[in-house]
Amino acid sequence: MAEKKVLVGMSGGVDSTVAALLLQKEGYEVVGVYMKLHDNEAYHRENYAKARRVGEYLGVEVHFLDISGDFRQEVYDYFVEEYRTGRTPNPCVVCNRQIKFGRMLEFADSLGIEKVATGHYVRSDGRYIYMARDRSKDQSYFLAQVRKEVIPRLLFPLGEWLKEEVKAYAAEIPVLQDLATQKESSEICFVENDYTEVLQRHMEIDREGEVLNEAGEVVGTHKGYMHYTIGKRRGFTVRGAHDPHYVLSVDPERNRIVVGTREKLEERSFEISRINLFEDLTEFDCQVKVRYRTRAIPAHVVIDGERGRVELGEPVYGLARGQFAVFYDGERLLGGGEIL
Ligand SMILES: Nc1ncnc2c1ncn2[C@@H]1O[C@H](COP(=O)(O)OP(=O)(O)OP(=O)(O)O)[C@@H](O)[C@H]1O
């Protein structure tokens, strides 16, 4: 009987498969769990079957955990409500806190297992989380809201791996070959193509509205405010405009958007709430990412109770409310907060 036991979140994809394999090689007794998150039954049938196939290959049990009720309440409903209020949610950040590194750890507790692993591309030394070696796949941004108490329990076997190496590793194993070549999953697991398809199931999002300039004059029309996020530059009309125009703000109550030229998107400071830090910091210098796919830029942060203020060392163009500001000290994740 192996002394070291680990619960691995097995989605049926190549990353969690290789993660489980590497842990087993290291001498861990692996127990798998497939979590049913959203309610696309066909998706789950297909992916749970893959996870079970990997389980058979590894000779490990793969539990099926239906937490679709929790997921709906804490991730999906939040996603829909945020768009309804004219904001731009980040469901993966919330899912990692509440579900993957929340409910999945409770499930590990119920099995008497201390360690939990996933195929996320991040590194950890048991105290902090760091960017992955594969910077193009780095997922540390999405872990900024994870509770700091859980970090010592987490293992991320892929932190030092490049995605290409992971695929090549799986491709060597005949029964896993198809996983190595399958197409990458979409960024948000319950969004197949476009987020508006999800919103459409819950409300009327195609309601034409007015486009205003900063002076408050009506200059065009748009398709319905939920189609827009700050910084977007397509899908609306602006009469007589020569330069490209960008969404500067969204007014859900009046179904209006305000647009302007790129320099009007410039922001040098902002407020945050839902603050989560891995160290007790109240005032600090760091680098901040204001969305996932962006470069980290220098910042000074002051925390005051539930709120914080971020002063940027250089301007950003387009700051979407509802996205997360994520702080780093070099490669080390310091935490983050939601942009107000
Ligand atoms: N439905 C699920 N059940 C169990 N674990 C999951 C599930 N979805 C994701 N995970 C875990 O979270 C990790 C990161 O999830 P993400 O959605 O980013 O997956 P991914 O990069 O597509 O990985 P994979 O190739 O393993 O599907 C996965 O590697 C896996 O360990």
UniProtKB/TrEMBL annotation:
EC class (word): transferase
UniProt keyword annotations, A-Z: ATP-binding, Cytoplasm, Disulfide bond, Methyltransferase, Nucleotide-binding, RNA-binding, Transferase, tRNA processing, tRNA-binding
Keyword Transmembrane part of the UniProt annotation: no
Binding-site residues for ATP, renumbered to this chain: 9-16, 35, 119
GO biological process: methylation; tRNA wobble position uridine thiolation
Superkingdom of origin organism: Bacteria
Protein EC: 2.8.1.13
Annotated signal sequence range: none
Compartment annotation: Cytoplasm
Function description: Catalyzes the 2-thiolation of uridine at the wobble position (U34) of tRNA, leading to the formation of s(2)U34.
Family membership: Belongs to the MnmA/TRMU family.
Protein name: tRNA-specific 2-thiouridylase MnmA
Organism, scientific name: Nitratifractor salsuginis (strain DSM 16511 / JCM 12458 / E9I37-1)
